[in-house]
Amino acid sequence: MSEGDVALASARAFVGELERSGLTDACISPGSRSTPIALALARDERIRMHVHLDERASAFFALGLAKASGRPVVVACTSGTAAANLFPAVVEASMARVPLILLTADRPPKLRGVGANQTIDQVDLFGRYVREFTDAPLPAEGPDSMRTWVILGHDTYRQACRPGPVHVNLPYREPLIPVGDPVPLGSVATAFAGASLGEGPSASEQDIGGFVDAVAGVERGLLYLGSLRTPSSVILALAARLGWPVIAEPTSGLRVPGTLRGAQFLLSNARFLETHRPEVVVQFGAAPTSRAGLGLVGAASRLLIVDPDDLVADPQGHAERRFVVHAGELVSGAVDRISEGSRPAWLEAWHEADERARDAVDATIDAWDEPYEGRIARDVAACLPDGSSLVVGSSMPVRDLDAYMLPREGLRVLANRGASGIDGFVSTALGVAAVGAQTTALCGDLTLLHDVGSLIWSAGRGHDCVFVVPNNDGGVIFSFLPQHDLPELEELFTTPHGLDLGAVCHAAGAGHVRVEHAADLIPAIVRGHDAGGVHVVEVPIDRARNVQMHAEVQAAVGAALRPTM
Question: Residue 130 sits in which domain range?
Fold first, then answer.
């Protein structure tokens, strides 16, 4: 019988078990050696297909899908450098605990290492960045073959739900095209249960008791909520019981009313922190995004970290203890054991300073008609409807959002903050949009251009997403880093591109509008969503003036905080 038929039958058995376990979406790129797995995925009507021209974009699109849906997503590609192009998204998925299933086609083992065309060593290609690697057997007929592929499908999906990326390398012999021959693979009587993403190991009685002992009775404490894959509102109930202020990053899912509104400005004010330094900081989730936040947790007399995804979110090695457990279980078990006291002066002092700082920030930026990156971040987050998603790029946008976003309900904020790269951002945002919620993306001009191939390929393919792009013609973040004094700043770091984003969008078939006044931003975003499709709202930014405006905001906050110190 034809090798193509044997390969397709085996692939269909494997894919069928992935689907029974919970798979709903797969991303593929064109290639010859991957024909059996591509056909198996495409011919399963229960799986939604997303075809991409290049593998890097495909993997980041799958990353966005998996982040937004909370389910494993397949990325399938051919052999050789096609597989290597998955690596950036694999790194992000590994470090952010995103469930991806990587299916790379390969030559048969006898053709490896002998100079066969489009063949590289794909065994353990992604190293420790994957939860599990399987070099699958060559497809073969026989009474036990069905069982082999069904078990592999079940185990692959289950491993991805740990969660993280899983790699299955699939070797195929030629000919690759099926001719319709029947293939006996046997049968499997065992029915496997599906799998779903966990939220961390269960919290034991010892964990709960240790946590209570560490926080109960502490007046000068603070909760810092970093990125959380599965936020739990009971964390806010814990803060209320303890009488501690809460700093919640947008990607925590808990930047809601009651949390601090201007926290990053307080942390950036050395005089304020001199008299308001907490004795205990409890950090939930990933390490802080801002330098001020890292400085706070790094200088805390006692730091506790609740790290349900085992991110090892302690880059300074300062934690007294890490609780690698389900955060909701740990906090739920602890809350009732902590006595509720009166509202302490400590909490009042933080909230009074927070109000002063936030009022000063808003009064300063609202007085400017010219666009300012901090106001863009604030206004974008505030204007989006309940139930929508905001995908924010690394570099300055995620920092601006952290500093300027006002607490609110109903908005989901996602970012590639595992490895904090700017690559694949357009693809990630479009993957989030494919899940169904109205999606807005906030990113810099270099981030958009870094993934412009995905914009060109995907803009006319039925996706709906509005990209808000502050365009400062380069990497403005370096103006805030030590590199800003180097004579090579422009050439090596800022790298101005001089490109016309409107022309790029026209070539891609994407909508484009240029906004030059702060008050015109929100109407432009609304019009973009109302029109449907992919739209870019470009906001020109003067780089030097933007740095000056940042300084003016900090000065206004400093003046507002003087009466509290």
Answer: 3-171
